[in-house]
């Protein structure tokens, strides 16, 4: 189990995997994806024959000019427990475009086309917009005491002896 400041998208290109959070277990199959918000404690279990792409990105990078109303919405999206995770499946009509964007990102990772960074940022914004439009904030307390305790334990466990 671990966590990081970045949000991330996980896209399964072949096989299947399981993502565990402190409160949920999500199984993802080929062609499915998952948005994980910043600071979400998680663990990814993937068999050897599974292949997936992990696209972490810093919320700090995705900002507009000072005073832009979009910054407020982005800050809300990345706020603790606003949207901890959002599964993306091809059976959901609205998610198909997002999955196509993730396929593009996977291809870009291999090919590094011209204007690679621009193409990635453009798709990340579109992915976040889709998550924001189609997922309501979770009704959870502002601070999850179990998550805070788990982070303390995990930090202690990481320390060298």
Strand and helix map with partners:
Layout (H helix, E strand, L loop, with lengths): L6 E8 L1 E6 L3 E5 L3 E4 L5 E4 L5 E7 L11 H10 L6 E4 L6 H17 L4 H19 L10 H14 L3
Antiparallel strand pairs: 1-4, 1-6, 2-3, 2-5, 4-7
Helix pairs in contact: 2-3
Structure characterization notes:
The protein has 161 residues and is α+β, with helices and mostly antiparallel strands. It has one domain (7-141): Jelly Rolls (Sandwich), CATH 2.60.120. The chain is 37% helix and 24% strand. The protein has 4 helices and 7 strands; from the N terminus they run ββββββαβααα. It has helices at 69-78, 95-111, 116-134, 145-158, and strands spanning 7-14, 16-21, 25-29, 33-36, 42-45, 51-57, 85-88. A 4-stranded antiparallel beta sheet has the order 6-1-4-7, with helices on one face. A 3-stranded antiparallel beta sheet has the order 3-2-5, with no helix packed on it. It is globular. Mean pLDDT is 85; it is low at 139-143.
Task: Give a brief rundown of this model.
This protein has 161 residues and is of the alpha+beta class. It has four helices and seven strands, in the order E-E-E-E-E-E-H-E-H-H-H. Helices cover 37% and strands 24% of the residues.
Labels describing this entry:
161 residues; alpha+beta; Jelly Rolls; four-stranded antiparallel beta sheet; three-stranded antiparallel beta sheet; 4 helices; 7 strands
Multimeric organization: single chain
The general outline is globular
Report the portion of residues in β strands: 15-25%
Distance, first to last CA: 19 Å
What is the name of the CATH class?
Mainly Beta
The Cα radius of gyration reads: 16 Å
């Amino acid at each position: 189990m671990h966590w990081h400041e970045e949000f991330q998208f996980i896209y399964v290109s072949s096989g299947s995997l399981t993502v565990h959070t402190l409160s949920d277990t999500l199984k993802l199959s080929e062609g499915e994806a998952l948005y994980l918000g910043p600071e979400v404690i998680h663990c990814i279990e993937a068999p050897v024959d599974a292949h997936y792409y992990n696209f972490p990105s810093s919320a700090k990078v995705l900002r507009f000019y000072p005073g832009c109303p979009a910054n407020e919405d982005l800050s809300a999206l990345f706020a603790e427990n606003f949207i901890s995770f959002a599964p993306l499946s091809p059976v959901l009509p609205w998610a198909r475009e997002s999955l196509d964007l993730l396929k593009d990102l996977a291809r870009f990772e291999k090919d590094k086309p011209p204007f690679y960074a621009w193409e990635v940022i453009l798709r990340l914004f579109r992915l976040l917009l889709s998550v924001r439009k189609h997922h309501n904030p979770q009704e959870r307390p502002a601070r999850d005491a179990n998550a805070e305790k788990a982070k303390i334990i995990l930090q202690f466990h990481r320390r060298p002896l």
